[in-house]
Amino acid sequence: MAERLVKYSRAQQKDVQDEHFYDAQCPYCSMQCKMRVIEQKGPSRTQYKTIALDNPTSEGRLCVKGIHAYQHAVHRERVKQPLFKVDGQFVPVSWEFALSVIKEKFTNIQEKFGTDAVSVYGGGSLTNEVAYLLGKFARVALRTKYIDYNGRFCMSAAASAANQAFGIDRGLTTRLDEIEQTDCIILAGTNIAECQPTIMPYFERAKENGTKIIVIDPRVTETSKMADWHIQLKLEQMQH
Predict the structure, then answer these.
(1) Strands laid side by side in the 229-231 sheet
(2) Long-range contacts from 222-225, C-beta under 8 angstroms, 24+ separation
(3) Do residues 104 and 122 share a domain?
């Protein structure tokens, strides 16, 4: 068996004729874990693999979502150029044509209804740099005050609670490495073990240090299973 594995490994190495490295970050949760995607081109196929890069938040960890995050970029059905609907069907067009149509329609709308008649909608997976450029594009190029992102709805409840409890509506109120130094942690309506798995070691180390963890969630999750107390609210209780 060992000999077969060695032969297979050597065959795989010979099959790689060209190799490229792309440093990136995972877009799937707020941890934004750093990673390197390795593209290996051979005579018969191109394959990819992902390795984690060290960073102060996830401490060099990647979850299964991060490991496979590259797949949406190389999927065969990915849209790689603008599509314009003609007679009910999308047809490929050039970027020059697409941008000219967008400019014409935006200009007509703003001339008729004012600059705030258009808005910009971003995404929570954008990097800080891209989010900054998107904001500049909205305020400077389009001159609109309406810019938002898809995290508004999923974070509205958390923002309201944080405002009432701490007076701020964004981000953590402490550093991640301080989690394991706390006496008690309350996790309300969150399933960190599945949604942000790369920071679970902080909570595991906290438990080892004697921290009591309380999970408030109607569901039984991997997070609730590691808690000291699981407060399993009924749906009718959550409506009040």
Answers:
(1) 184-188, 212-216, 229-231
(2) 222/191, 222/193, 222/194, 223/187, 223/190, 223/191, 223/192, 223/193, 223/194, 224/191
(3) no
What is the band of 1 on the pLDDT scale with cuts at 50, 70, 90?
low
Exposed / middle / buried, residue 236 (Cβ in 10 Å: 0-12, 13-18, 19+)? exposed
Q: Check which CATH number belongs to the domain holding 185 and give it.
A: 3.40.228.10
pTM for the model stands at: 0.70
User: DSSP label at 137?
Assistant: I
Q: Per-residue confidence at 116, pLDDT binned at 50, 70, 90?
A: very high
In this structure, how many other beta carbons lie within 10 angstroms of the beta carbon of residue 9?
Answer: 10
Number of domains in the chain: 4
Q: In terms of domains, do 119 and 109 share one?
A: no
What does each C-alpha distance from 99 to 74, 143, 219 come to in angstroms?
24, 18, 47
pLDDT digits (tens, 9 = 90+) for 143-171: 999 998 877 777 777 778 788 888 877 66
Q: Residue 37's domain spans which residues?
A: 2-74
Tokens representing 16 are 């790689």
What DSSP state is assigned to residue 140? Answer: I
C-alpha to C-alpha distance for 56 and 66, rounded to whole angstroms: 16
Nearest-angstrom CA–CA distance, 155 and 238? 17
CB-side neighbour CA atoms (13 Å) of 27? 15
Residue 48 and residue 69: Cα distance in Å, rounded? 11
